[in-house]
Design brief:
This protein is of the alpha+beta class. The two termini are about 50 Å apart. The mean pLDDT is about 80. It folds into three domains: about 5-155, PAS domain (Beta-Lactamase); about 215-300, Signal transduction histidine kinase, dimerisation/phosphotransfer (DHp) domain (Helix Hairpins), CATH 1.10.287; about 305-460, Histidine kinase-like ATPase, C-terminal domain (Heat Shock Protein 90), CATH 3.30.565. The chain is built from ten helices and twelve strands. One of its GO terms (molecular function) is phosphorelay sensor kinase activity.
Length: about 450
């Protein structure tokens, strides 16, 4: 069911329910008022019969009939019928009923009468009369009648409610249809744009009638998604092109050395030299393939990384120890600020220890590679109460201004590092790992020369 149909249906049901409750309330109120008014008239008629009694207890005269099928009965204190407006009636009060009337003094009742759709109403009451009985017994007056006009008016009111409510609901459906069309017109406009032939273009963007309303916000969010998708497609194309080139180069080199050795090398030394060159290129190819696989693994399992609480000082020192074993003789200074050491509890983050260590080692490896073995600094400090900052500082060639974001892309390298071996995977891997830990990686030039790679990570709430 479309949203437009749901709006019409719910709007009609809501208005119909309100009208139904209101109609039932009015109808019930009128029915109670009719019943009370008719019973009050019957009670007045019953009390009028007291004025017909003489001093001897006889009835002189009759009650004026003003209600449909009105009938009066009067019983003496001795329980004998002394007055009846009609000789026969559809209601006869038996002795048990009369005893009940004398006991309760006033009774309002209903009874079914043949040939009538609705019950008749009656009132029975007692009064002492002109000459009260010595034994305290009283007269009983009973009046019955049929509220023909009241029932007719009630039925007319009921029919009026049915007709008016049906017309009102019909108008609500019509107005709801017009309203829903107008309300959903911006959405239909967006749907029309999406279904247009131009929507297949990567540069396609939605245009909202009103950028400030909810549909405009939705269109902007959709456009932002399209922008990210376009960037992903561009990155993928660039990655495929660069990866193909990077993989093709060492393969061609290996093939060239092997073919040359097979065709021209006749002595052992020449064969060894050719095979050594092939092995060197094969090692580069292996390192490139491992980097690409590791990058693909991070992209594939980002949402399923096993995470747990990590003490950040231990993770930083562990990465520094591993780096020292891999680069013996390399100068590395590790600094932990007083703000971290003076925390009431160890500074922890939620993450994966292996991936975090991999990111730090990649940053340290880059610092050594692009600074020609000069001293490297690894520092840890509190950025705010909720964040911690790790940075790796070297004294190397630094960054070309404007390339800080470019070199994070897969297989992209700075324009000033072409003479230094590498594949452009390390920083991409670091960026993906830090992003998966809800952190931020920032690259900037160090005053005086070199590069600062800064990592900001959220601290585990205490």
């Amino acid at each position: 069911m479309q949203i437009k149909q749901k709006l019409i249906l719910w709007f009609a049901l809501l208005v119909g329910l309100i009208l139904l409750v209101f109609s039932i309330y009015i109808y019930g109120t009128y029915s109670n008022f009719r019943q009370r008014a008719f019973e009050d008239r019957l009670e007045k008629k019953a009390r009028v019969t007291e004025h017909l009694l003489t001093l001897q207890g006889n009835v002189a005269g009759s009650v004026i009939t003003s209600m449909p099928e009105q009938v009066e009965f009067v019983y003496s204190p001795s329980d004998s019928l002394i007055y009846s407006s009609q000789p026969r009636n559809d209601f006869m009060a038996d002795s048990a009923f009369r005893r009940r009337v004398r006991r309760e003094r006033l009774i309002r009742f209903k009874y079914q009468s043949p040939g009538h759709l609705y019950p008749k109403d009656g009132v029975a009451l007692t009064y002492p009369g002109v000459s009260p009985s010595i034994d305290g017994r009283e007269y009983v007056a009973i009046v019955t009648a049929y509220d023909l006009d009241g029932y007719r008016h009630r039925n007319e009111l009921r029919d009026l409610f049915w007709i008016s409510n049906a017309i009102a609901i019909g108008l609500v459906i019509l107005v709801g249809y017009i309203f829903s069309r107008q309300a959903l017109k911006p959405l239909n406009n967006l749907i029309g744009q999406i279904r247009s032939p131009t929507a297949t273009n990567l540069t396609f963007r939605l245009k909202a009638e009103n950028p400030q309303d909810e549909v405009g916000v939705l269109a902007q969010a959709f456009n932002d998604l399209l922008t990210r998708q376009e960037q992903l497609v561009d990155n993928q194309r660039s990655f495929i092109a660069q990866a193909s080139h990077e993989l093709r180069t060492p393969l061609a080199t290996i093939k060239g050395w092997l073919e040359t050795s097979m065709l021209y090398d006749t002595d052992t030394d020449s064969l060894k030299r050719g095979m050594g060159q092939a092995v060197t290129e094969l090692n580069k190819l292996t390192a490139l393939a491992n980097g690409l696989l590791q990058l693909a693994r991070i992209d594939g399992v980002d949402g399923h990384i096993e995470r747990h609480s990590l003490e950040l000082v231990d993770s930083v020192l562990d990465a520094a120890d591993t780096f020292g074993l891999q680069h013996a003789g390399q100068s590395l200074s590790v600094q932990v600020s007083d703000g971290v050491l003076e925390q009431p509890r160890p500074v922890c983050i939620i993450g994966n220890s292996y991936l975090l260590k991999t990111a730090l080692l990649n940053l340290l490896d880059n610092a050594v590679k692009y600074s020609n073995g000069q001293p490297v600094t690894l520092s840890l400090e509190m950025d705010t109460h909720e964040r911690v900052r790790i940075w790796v500082e070297d004294r190397g060639i630094g960054l070309v201004p404007g390339e800080e974001k470019q070199i994070i892309q897969p297989l992209a390298r700075g324009s000033n590092v072409q003479t230094i071996s590498g594949f452009g995977i390390g920083l991409t891997l670091v960026h993906r790992i830090i992003t998966s830990h809800q952190g931020v990686l920032q690259l900037k030039n160090r005053p005086g020369g070199g590069t600062i790679a800064e990592v900001i990570l959220p601290v585990e709430p205490s």
